[in-house]
Amino acid sequence: MAIAEKWFPLVESAHVIALATVAGSIFMVDSRLLGVASEKLPFTYVSDRLLPWTWGAFGGAALTGTLMFMGNATTYYSNTPFRIKMLLLVLAGLNMLVFQLVTFRGVAKWNSDRPPAPARAAGFISIALWCGVIAFGRWIGFTM
Amino acid sequence: MNLKSTVHWLTQTPLSQTIQTTSWAIPGIQVVHIICLAALFAFALNLSLRVAGRGLAVESLASLAGRLVPAIWICVGILFLSGSLLIIAEPFRTITNPVFYLKMGLLIVAIVLTLRLDHVARRASETPSRAHTAVAILSMLVWAGIIVAGRFIAYLY
To answer: What is the domain partition of chain A in residue ranges?
Structure first.
């Protein structure tokens, strides 16, 4: 079910809109986690309202990404920036998982205050990884 | 001086030459541009959601807009700077390209709509009117349109 060449620009544009929503919403949640924005709002309130957008848009990004990949699979597969981007996505997922399973357990204690160091670390790492995903994603276009 | 000669002149400037010949410069500036548009999109989305009475609703519209709108303007500033460098580096992709002017037209519309939403928010009526919600939705469509036009610059120059 590869997309025809003529659809690539539109699928790619949809991918950018989706990634803007994913990364942008994550930046906002991470800013709260770092304690530099929305400090007056409880962390769980911010994440509850924003993360559904993150996940929904991630579905769109994954779908459009898969469509683009399938149009030129073998070339993307052996493209180094593409591989690094996929690795960074996995790392971002792992970072989220560790935060969810470990750090988040004690959230009641810091929900309305400045989050503890492990939470702030998760926020910082998340921002760094997602900037990396964007950077290597853009780099793919220069190396295809 | 017409558009084509402007392109030619720009391409010869030292700044343009420097960016063109530094291998990581154009991709790097584009990455800054994309990261910034992602932040802007999320700020704009949350402003629009709040105007429509949703999103971070526990915070007053006036207070949230007071945080998000300045952040949007900062992003517009960074996008303007990074965009300007990209134009200077490769003026043939934009200055003679109708799609670029479409993007700039949409940008003006987005800025006007954001000013409107800011004005609405500061008069602090908590019940969203249908008209205000329509402006909020329209502004998101225009920001999305700017993203599409931005991508299409590369395909239609």
So the answer is: 5-143
Residues of chain B with pLDDT > 70: what percent? 97
Contact pairs from chain A to chain B, CB under 8 Å: 79
**A89-130: per-residue pLDDT in tens?**
999 999 999 999 999 999 999 999 999 999 999 999 999 999
Cβ–Cβ < 8 Å for A92, A122: no
Q: Tell me how far the alpha carbon of residue B153 is from its chain's centroid.
A: 14
Evaluate if residue B124 carries a pLDDT over 80: no
Q: What integer pLDDT is reported at residue B136 of this predicted model?
A: 97
Instruction: Give the SS3 label for residue A113.
Output: coil
Pick left, alpha or beta for residue B124 (phi over 0 → left; psi -120 to 50 → alpha; otherwise beta): left
Q: Show residues of chain A in contact with B72, CB under 8 Å.
A: none
pTM: 0.96
Which tens digit of pLDDT belongs to each residue from B77-103?
999 999 999 999 999 999 999 999 999
Distance CA B156, CA B97 (A): 7
Residue B43 and residue B109 in contact, taking contact as beta carbons nearer than 8 Å: no
CA–CA distance from A128 to each of A95, A115, A140, B29, B99 (Å)? 11, 18, 18, 17, 32
Query: Is residue A60 within 8 Å of residue B78, measured between CB atoms?
Result: no
**Of B31, B41, B147, which has the smallest distance from its Cβ to A135's Cβ?**
B31
Q: How many CA atoms lie within 13 A of B90 on its CB side?
A: 18
Closest by CA to B73, choosing from B18, B109, B111, B107, is: B111
Rg (CA), chain B: 18
